[in-house]
Amino acid sequence: MSDSIFTELKRRNVFKVSVAYLVLAWVVIQVTQAAVPALHLPEWINSAVFLFGLVGFPFAVFFAWVFEITPEGVKRESEIAPEDSISMHTGQKLNFIIIGLLVVALGYFIYESRFDSKSPITVVGENVVGENITTEGVTSKQQLEGSSIAVLPFVNMSSDPEQEYFSDGISEEILNVLAQIPNLHVTSRSSAFAFKGTKINISEVASKLGVKNVLEGSVRKSGNRIRITAQLIEAGSDKHLWSETYDRELTDIFAIQDEISTAIVTALKSKLGIETTINKNTIEAVNLDAYNEYLQGRFYIEKRKQLDLEKALSHFNKAIELSPDYAPAWMGKAWASLFLSEFQYGNIPHDVAVARALPAAEKALALDPGLAEAQAIMGLIQSGAQNEDVAISYYQKAIELNPNYADAYTWYASRMFEFPLKRRQLREKALQLSPMSLLANLNYGFSLVEFDRFDEAQKIAEHMLIIDENSFQAYNLLSYVNRAQGNLGMSSYFQHVSVELNQATNHKVILAFNLHNLGLSDQAAQLVKEAGFEEIGLLFNDNLELYLSQVRQKYPRSDPDVLGNFIRGDAEMLVEDYAAAIGYLENSFCDDCNQLIFAYGQVGEQQSAATLFDKRQKTLKSQLESGQTNLQVTSMEMAFLSGDNNKAVEYLQAAMERGYILDFGYQIMPMYQSLREHPEWPSIVDQSKKRQKEQGEIYL
Q1: Distance between CA 240 and CA 230 in Å, rounded?
Q2: pLDDT-derived band of residue 672, with 50, 70 and 90 as boundaries?
Q3: What is the pLDDT at residue 478?
Q4: Model pLDDT, residue 435
Q5: First to last CA, the chain
Q6: Could you tell me which of 372, 288, 378, 395 has the C-alpha nearest to residue 333?
Q7: Could you give the CA distance from residue 376 to residue 365 in angstroms, rounded to a whole number?
Q8: DSSP code at position 125
């Protein structure tokens, strides 16, 4: 009986119809999945096509069993005599149809699968990032390769260009949610936003950012209504994995962000093996006006220039007024306040900036301990207060909360003085996470210079200028590269360009000291005057008595004042009042500097001097063992402090061979008198003056 049923199913072409139907349905579903997002059709069409295909299958089987197609039309099988049946001929046609559909399906399968081959991520330049990171908490390049996504800035489609900050904020909020997902590599804001306002080629962008998937979209805001369109694209094949359009009231903005993030995770689950759920937004109750102010603050703070930072701080303060319990606004206030310090991008005394930033950071953490950015900003504040171990713990917590937080790796690396290799690895990790970040590129370039990898650092700087032709950070790196190679003239020129682009106080002071070492004292004096330290110009012009008088009147400017105390302590060293110098230097950022070690020795505090000397010596040993070579001046200082002037001169001569020009401090500070009495000193001075003249002409 079973054999006869099987034979009859075969004769009526039921099996062939079933196969043809399934293959055709698969092809239709694949085409629909690609066409729906490309034509901006509703997502439910994909579900409808699949449902109709599923429901239609039993009807197709039933039709093949009950009916037969004849030259006269469709007839019931029971109405056709066996000798009149043409089912065999129909079966041959079905064979050709099945073969044709299989060819189409196979072609589509090959087209899709050809993009699945593994390839290493591209970061920046040739051979710039060539090492896998094995540092604890740092993943390798191979681990970043698969589950990776970049959230590009959503396009502002609103009629008001001033709404740009809002569309940026939407992108950033989605990025922040995704960044908290374990094993998902999310490119940082600074890298993704480097493509803002440019004509985007998805595959090219993905290659530059080292990701396999890209989220793009647009935002149209009109009154209290908002339309957000988002689509997730697999970069290699340009296949749309998911897309959706949201038309909502503006009050639903946080729910929309959650929906988009959840939809992306769902779309990536099967393809990337992400088995997780996202944390729902906990800020639905935030005043929408406060949220707007916060977004505008974020928009300006990323520019890292004084006027923009002041605007950012104003917006954060307004956000706090409107919503006092909004943790991100307090974080933003702490961030902007700190970055307005004279040590960063502003001109506010460092300790005043820290005093303003600390309560805001503490408030942010009290409201939301899980806010990674607040943890990192607190780390910066503690670093500025010389609490290094505490700072490191905050950076580590920030990375634990958000493993994709590139800036946290960069700031953490800045505290690794004693571990140069780990510092370089952390900076490399930051660059992998954010290859278009100027900050990440700058700091990784610094590490390359420390290991005499000048050509690679040069490529980094060139890449930064491609990202932003007005990047003051790029010119800072070019300045650093040239200085390390003994080209102080070109170094000062690039520093001058950096100052022109960003009038930060610390940049002006650095350039002023460079110019003074080039013999350009008048220009140097003018720069420190513009920076608010006009008394240093008196020192540049050898007016020591008036310099000391004005410094004693002005510094310290407040209590505490780490920079003011250093300037005052250094001035007391000039008149050999070592007891007074110690009192000021101990309360400055000079925790183990040459002046303090020497002063301790002069007043008989040998144990204190030995403790700081051993600390410096340990750091130098670690740097040398790591492979750093440009440490002749540091080695000279340590030899001098140990009392070995012959060895100190040998190191100084080695530095001169690398193009070094004597810092004027070694020529005027009383503490270096014994070094200046060495028989080789006059020839070193002559060599330095000759190079000073040559390099000064290059600058001019």
Answers
A1: 11
A2: very high
A3: 96
A4: 86
A5: 104
A6: 378
A7: 11
A8: S
